[in-house]
Every structure is written in structure tokens, then in C-alpha cells.
Design goal:
4 copies of one chain form a homotetramer.
Chain A (H helix, E strand, L loop, with lengths): L4 E5 L3 E9 L5 H9 L9 H13 L10 E9 H7 L6 E4 L19 E3 L7 E6 L3 H24 L4 H4 L9 E9 H11 L6 H17 L1 H10 L10
Antiparallel strand pairs in A: 1-2, 2-3, 3-7, 4-7, 5-6
Helix pairs in contact in A: 1-2, 2-8, 6-7, 7-8
Amino acid sequence: MEEIKRINVLDKGFVELLDTMPSHHMDMAVVSAARVSYLMDSKGEDKDKFLVGFLLQHGHTSPFEMAEFKFRVKAPVVVWWQWVRHRIAEYNAQSGRYVKYDDTECYLPDKLRQPSKHNRQASDEDKLVEGQEQLIKMMKEHYEKGLKLYNELLEKGVAREEARLVLPGFAMYHTFIVKMNCHSLMNFINKRNHRDAQWEIRQYAAVLEEFFKEKMPWAHEAYLKYYKGVDENIEG
Amino acid sequence: MEEIKRINVLDKGFVELLDTMPSHHMDMAVVSAARVSYLMDSKGEDKDKFLVGFLLQHGHTSPFEMAEFKFRVKAPVVVWWQWVRHRIAEYNAQSGRYVKYDDTECYLPDKLRQPSKHNRQASDEDKLVEGQEQLIKMMKEHYEKGLKLYNELLEKGVAREEARLVLPGFAMYHTFIVKMNCHSLMNFINKRNHRDAQWEIRQYAAVLEEFFKEKMPWAHEAYLKYYKGVDENIEG
Amino acid sequence: MEEIKRINVLDKGFVELLDTMPSHHMDMAVVSAARVSYLMDSKGEDKDKFLVGFLLQHGHTSPFEMAEFKFRVKAPVVVWWQWVRHRIAEYNAQSGRYVKYDDTECYLPDKLRQPSKHNRQASDEDKLVEGQEQLIKMMKEHYEKGLKLYNELLEKGVAREEARLVLPGFAMYHTFIVKMNCHSLMNFINKRNHRDAQWEIRQYAAVLEEFFKEKMPWAHEAYLKYYKGVDENIEG
Amino acid sequence: MEEIKRINVLDKGFVELLDTMPSHHMDMAVVSAARVSYLMDSKGEDKDKFLVGFLLQHGHTSPFEMAEFKFRVKAPVVVWWQWVRHRIAEYNAQSGRYVKYDDTECYLPDKLRQPSKHNRQASDEDKLVEGQEQLIKMMKEHYEKGLKLYNELLEKGVAREEARLVLPGFAMYHTFIVKMNCHSLMNFINKRNHRDAQWEIRQYAAVLEEFFKEKMPWAHEAYLKYYKGVDENIEG
């Protein structure tokens, strides 16, 4: 990986693609795994690409586990809360017990959405709340009070792990390293880049899909045809 | 399971042992698995108990995966945040997108602890913060303001998934069903009923260990002898 | 579980349902998990059953992980070879290093099938090989020679783990304890009780589906409607 | 990876290191994950190396999951039989249903070992069986008869998946692609490059340890100090 590409998400978050395995032509890792052959052994682009589609169409997902993505992601807790429920992945997190939360590390939405009509637990990105500027201002002021109290508790000698209780916890940004294989990534995107998912995690899932499409154009094409929508599972 | 036993934890949380597999004599599930025999086939208590210890002593952990616990747990997000990092388990969570948070469902500590001397990220349960009553009162008032603002946002039409950003997120109670096999449970207890773990999750881990000891006395005895302390991994 | 039910499979194999979690009304474990409620809390049979279908239809598979099956299975290595590739399960196996293989523990097919027309790697149960009685007799004689040589090697002092190399390894029966949650079981049945799966493992998967249907009639009905055929993955 | 390195194992097997993640300085993936920082961010070699040891000493194994190895391995079924029980890994296998077994693809030991005195299920590499040349010759002849019968069955029209029953199954070579993260690899090496493991799989585990040591010298040093021997689990 010559250079790390970062895409900004929400007001202060981001996704960086830190590394991939293999480092180039990731689609060929699927092909080689299916043929149990050397990496990058090709039978010609047409046959190779056809194989990727054929595998996914017939549910042969194990070769897709041979391509791996490593991301560095900064996201609010409300997003991680849902993300870490995906268990086929590796995570390393910046610790809120170890490191003091920074004053500026709160997610403040720039728009407030109404509940969705079609799904009781979701919100509707086209239905904004009236008077939202005022409400967002109130949220921001409340955040600031929480951060002030947090700092006060620290000064009085309260341990970091405990003082954080007064923070607007769901809004606090944490940075994680996340490693996922392509099979698990497709499952993640399918469930989270979805209108039923919370709007915030969807923004991250959309960026992951962008990286997926860029690095594995054949697999992404197969995903759209044979996988997307097949299995949907939302927790909250 | 005739009756469900509940043990209260923290100010408003609890652990209930909902179910076990097998329903009785769980230690014998380990024995039977190791012998690949019928459930409850015994060679006499002495030999059976010896086998449980022998297996753990020699790292034969797979038979311990054949005994299963199902808990219903109410705990604040700060605890779940660490708990769900244990990936060899099954989780079902009450959704904060779906259900409105209740006014009284915040964890308020009754004591404020100083950082631990021996571990930068932990707190010390013997070193309390001076003037803590006043600080706890300030925390409570801040919680109440957050909950008031949350309700106000809901009234203005903001979706639940978004309004919760102003809550004291780490303090909010959520209820989960958690299923863990005995191997994974021993790993959980070893890491979380530990002085380096956050005090709050340690209270839950101690209750889990109590249930473990009650239901699998042989395995628990073996755990204390051969497993405890062996592998420690704290995230935060 | 009052009594263990055994169903015979192939010439000398079997599946026993050793235990389930919960022990009764397993469908209600899915319902309770989805509601994060006490076990067996019902809103009436119609609503409960509807919920099971709704969950699977919308890909909410996690509540299905709260129902658990434990089987004792005797099957030839050719079946285990494929079975153990399912990683979301717990296994305990009778060891061929520890226990001497018994003379009668070989799987001998009673019919010999031709390759399938529609799938190069499968066989066709309707297209039997001509002269198969004679061929099966030759197989049996070759098995016997292998077992004789195995015993001879043991007598000469060769370790069991090494002597077994001369056995008809794919045909040797092994007994395992297998624990699978309902989600993983549905995945197993979907892939293995399938015309593209090897005929032998299909016989086992069909028995597992029978137990599944008996113990979780609502989930099985939902499986047939919303899950079956969706994701197919055959290894060999 | 510029060039793929192959190490031969047993009479016809091998291990190739196909790919790693990251492609260079794999130890730094552990360091970066623990610091949740950019890949390859260093605080100087002394501090970086110290951190790797500190993490393993205190059971912080999750950063080790961020380094990944991909192998191509040719091994007899008796080895795979034990290997695939390691579930935290990805596998793709050459299929014996799809591809005809080749005449020369049997593992024939060059030495025959006696059972171990200290472990009933193992063999002792220093205690060879008397008259082993003659016994090995008999094994070879029996293999040849099995392969001859296999070919005869195929000629008569028996499907490949069924004809293989007469082969010396445990001795048949299969090629797999195996992907394992460093945490899972350490667990594998700890259990399989061990005197209680079957001699054959130990040869493979020793090669994996060689690759591990070459690619992650710091982690390997920490492994020897803090992990090796801690947790032992042998199946068979």
C-alpha cells in the first residue's frame, strides 16, 4: 500500500483503507482460492471474472474469505454499538479508560430526522424536523456541559473510566482498527448500507462499499447481482 | 429450569440465569463430551471429576464448549461496550432505536473511585474521591438534563435513534440475552472478574462466576487451578 | 430430555438428539430472544409464530442462535470431512489415535451411483452402476485386507495413529458429539440436504432436518419459506 | 510478496507462504493495532519491540489478530483431519469429489514409530518398529491395490465421490489454501508443534513456526516466552 486513502464521514469521522490482502488484484485472491492454485494464476480475464460471479451465485462464499481489508475508522459510539455486533471481524479500539476524551470529539448531527414511516426504528432522511437549528444548538450546549463536568470530575480525581459516564456517550468518537474478510464485509454492507439501518452507520457502510468496489470490481458486481438483499439483519 | 434466579448488580442492573444446557449436572456434559458417550454416562464421581480437571490442565478445552449458559442481563452501555467484544457468544439486545429510553434507566455510581496506581486505565476501589457526594449529585443533575432534552427532542419529532445522542450514553441501561458456552465463559470471567477490568463489568463477571460455580462446581474448581490468570486481555 | 431418540443412517451410522436448549418449546427461545424477555413469555400463539417468520424473512437471524441442538453422530470420515468445515459449531470426536479401529466399522455402500449429469462433482441416486454387486464385493474384500494389515501393523508395534494409514480412511466410522445453534443448523441443512451435496452427507442432513422440524415447527416452516436455497456453499 | 517460498514436508507434501498482511514488517501490524495508529508508525525499535512482548505477557491478544498469513499446503488427510478442527481460520480445499485422485498422491511414511510411553495416543520418534522396511513395503503394496481398485471403479462408472472409499483415505494428499491470523497461528503451533501431537502434523506445524519466526521475529520471541505451553488442546 503506497499511500493511505482517507474518506471523511459525518462531522469528524473518517474511514481509511490501511491495508489489503492481497495488496493488488484482490479479485484474483478469490479466483486462486477457488482453484487452490498459486496466487494470481489466471486463465484469462473472462474466465476469471466469470468464476467470481459463479461462486457467489451458487453460495460458494469461502473463497471470498481469502481477500482481507483493514480499515482505520473514526466513528461515534452509536455507530460502533451496532458495528461490533459483527463478530466475524477483528477489532482494536482506542480505549476510553486509557485516553482522556477530547473536547471536540462529539458527533453533532447537522440535520435532525423524523422517524421513518415504513420502519418504526429507523429515521427518514427526507423528513427533517422543523426548527432543527435551534434543537441542534441545544444539543451542542448540552454536550458542552457534559464535557465540562467530565473535566471537572477528572480534576477532582475521578478515574477516567468512571468520569466518562456524564459524557454524551453515544456521540463520542472512538477510533478503531477493523479487519474484515470480503465475505464478512459483504454481509456488513448488505445489512448496514441499507435503508433500515441507522443513518449514521449507513454513511460508513457506504464508504466501505466504495472501497470494496474500487478494490474488487468483479466481486462487487457479483455482490450486487447475487448477494445484496438476500440476508438482512439489523440490530440496534 | 424450574425458576429463574436473579442477582442484582449495580444500582438498577441484574443477571438472571435463564437456562442451561444440560439442564442439570452440567459438569457431566464435559465428561460425556470427552468420552463421546451418552449424556450422563458416569464412571463414578471420582473418575468423572478427575477427568474434568485433567482436561483443563492439559488444555483440552473443547469438551467445555458442550455446556452452555443463557443469561438475561441488564447493564449500562459502559459495561456492554466491553462485553460485546467477546465474540464467541450469542447476543440479543433491547434496541434503543426501537424502544424509548426510560427516565430511570441510568447508572449512577454510589462511589467515585480514583485511578489505580498499578494500572493507568483502571480505578482503585479503595481510593475514593473526596467530596464525592457532591460530585455524584452533579452527575445526577446532568443526567436529568440529558433525559429532559431527549424527551424534548422526541416531542419535536426527532427519531429515537438520533435523539439518544444527548443521553449520558455510557450510563444508559440496556437488557441483553447472552448465551455463552463454558469455555467462552471461563475466558470472560478470567479477563473481567479481574482487578484490571473496569469496576462495573467486574461486578457482572463476579456474578457470572457465582452462577458458574453453582452449576459446574468441578469445572469451577479446575478453572481456579488451571485456567485463571493464564490469559488476560483487556479492551476498553 | 427424558429419552434419547436415535435414527439410523447409512449401514452402521446414526444420529441421536442428545439434548436441546431450551428443553421444550424451542421455537419460544427465538421469540423470547427477539423480545429480550423472559423465556416462554408469550403474546399468544398467533403472534409468537408470526414473529418467528417475520424475523427470518427480514434476515434477523440472531434470535435463532438462542436455540441449541446437541447431537451424537456416527458417520464415516467422508461425511465428517465435509461436516467439520462448518465452523460455527462445537465438536468432540472419538480419537483414532487413542482408540483402535474396530473391524466392522467401515461404511460399505449398498448401491454404487454414477456421476451426476448436472453437477460434475456429485452423483446421481437414480443412475446406478451396472454390475454393482460384484464391485461392492470387491470393495468389501479390499476393506478386509486393509483392516487385516492394520491389525498386523499394530501387532508389530506400530502406533495406532500411524497404522491407520492403510485403512480405507474415508469409509471408517467415527462418532462425534456436535453442538449447533439453530442458525448454524439451518445453514448446514440448506447446503447439505441438497442435491449437490454428496449423497452420504445428505442422508445425515435429512435426519437433522427431521429433528429440526419436530422440535421447532415454526422455525422450520419459516426456513422452508425464507431461507432454503438462499445461500448454497459446497465444499468437498 | 516477490516470490513464493516453498518448504517440503513429509514425502510429497509442502507448505508455501503465499501472502502476508502486511506484506512487510508484520510485527509492526501488532504495534500499530495496539496504538490504533497508522500502519508502521514507530516510536523507535526498542519501544515497539517491548510493546509486542508486553501485550502477549498480559494476554492482550487482539492486536496479534491484525497480522495475517496465507499458506498453500499439501498434506495427507490424516493431517487435515486434525488441522481443520481449528475454527478460527479460513480454508479452501481441493475437492476429492471434483478432481480424480492421482496415483502418486499417497503419503507413505519412511519410518514406523512405536506408541509413546508417556502418552497413550502419540508415537515416539525415537522408538522405531523392528522390521519396518518389510512393513512399509506391505503398506505400499496395499496402497497400490487400493488405487488400482479406485481406478477400476471409476472406469465402471462409479462417481468419484463414492469410488474414493477404497483409497487409503488417511494417506491421500489434499492441497488447501489456509489463512490464519497470528493469534490463531500461535494457538495452532502451540498445540501441534508439540510432542503430544501426531508426528505428521507436527512436521507441518514446525514449518509454520519457521515462517512465523522469519516474518514476525518479535512476536515469535514473545510467543516462546509468554504463550508456548500455556494452553494445550489435542484432538485426534
